[in-house]
Structure formats: structure tokens, C-alpha cells
Write a structure and sequence with these properties.
The protein contains five helices and five strands, in the order αββαβααββα. The longest helix is centred in the C-terminal third of the chain and has 29 residues, at about 105-130. Helix 1 (about 5-20) crosses helix 2 and helix 3 (about 70-75) packs across helix 4 (about 80-85). The strands form two sheets. A three-stranded antiparallel beta sheet has the order 3-5-4. The chain has a two-stranded antiparallel sheet with strand order 1-2. The chain starts with a helix and ends with a helix. It is an alpha+beta fold. The chain has two domains: about 5-50, no CATH class; about 65-130, Multidrug-efflux Transporter Regulator, Chain: A, Domain 2 (Orthogonal Bundle), CATH 1.10.1660.
Length: about 130
């Protein structure tokens, strides 16, 4: 969890990034500034946003190949539901002996696709609600 001082520092950095000339850079020995690539900058900005609210940021790594239990946890579904998706061909997997394994990239692609469907359904509901007024 970010301390109040760290949250304040994060808010200060975010305020500077919102200015027209705001950009993330790393200072090397000798004072030379090296710009942070935009994709990495976006991740760092998300970390700063969480910290600015006093939140906790956890960084970890995910193996390239996942067990069905781990994949189900990432997807926020039960293992039996994941097995049904695998058997229906909705998410690719391969077998190691008698056990299914999934590529992390495939699991995260399925998660992004589900979130996109959920977002589209929510927007459709908002449109329907607006049409009723």
C-alpha cells in the first residue's frame, strides 16, 4: 500500500504528465534523459494512478503455459466452466499427459474478448435506456 507521502509524490508526477510538455523519462549517469516508450509509460502511469489513491500495486510474472486451475482463476470462472470452453473449442489448449495446458497469451486473449463483449453489451443497454426517455 502506498504511504501518504508516496501517494502525494504520485499525484505530483501525474499532474506534471498532464501538462502539454509532460513525458516520462529516465535520467542516466551524467544527467542525460532517456524517454520512456509510450507503451511502458502507459503502464507506469496506471501504477502512479493507483498509488495516488493510496492503493497497492502488485507486480508478478505469469508463466507462458498455464494449468487449467490457474487459467480459470485468471478468467474468473470455475475450472469446470473452463473445461467446457476447451471441449467446445472456445479456447485452445494442448495436453501434457492427461492434463490440459493453456498458453497464457490465449487465456489473456479470451479475457480481453470477454471484456469487449461485456463492454458492448453495457453500451447497448445504455443506448436502450436512452431511447426509452
Amino acid at each position: 500500500m502506498a504511504t501518504p507521502h508516496e501517494a502525494s509524490l504520485a499525484r505530483d508526477v501525474l499532474a506534471r504528465l498532464e501538462s502539454p510538455r509532460g513525458a516520462l523519462a529516465v535520467e542516466q549517469d551524467g544527467g542525460r534523459l532517456v524517454p520512456v516508450p509510450p507503451a511502458i509509460g502507459k503502464v507506469l502511469q496506471q501504477v502512479l494512478e493507483v498509488m495516488s489513491r493510496g492503493g497497492t500495486v502488485t507486480i508478478g510474472s505469469v508463466p507462458e503455459v498455464l494449468t487449467t486451475s490457474t487459467a480459470a482463476g485468471i478468467l474468473g470462472i470455475s475450472r469446470p466452466t473452463l473445461m467446457k470452453m476447451i471441449n467446445e473449442g472456445k479456447i485452445p489448449s494442448h495436453k501434457v499427459g492427461t492434463h490440459h495446458r493453456l498458453k497464457a497469451d490465449d487465456v489473456y486473449a479470451a479475457l480481453r474478448a470477454r471484456r469487449a463483449r461485456e463492454r458492448a453489451a453495457f453500451l447497448e443497454l445504455l443506448e436502450l435506456e436512452g431511447a426509452e426517455d
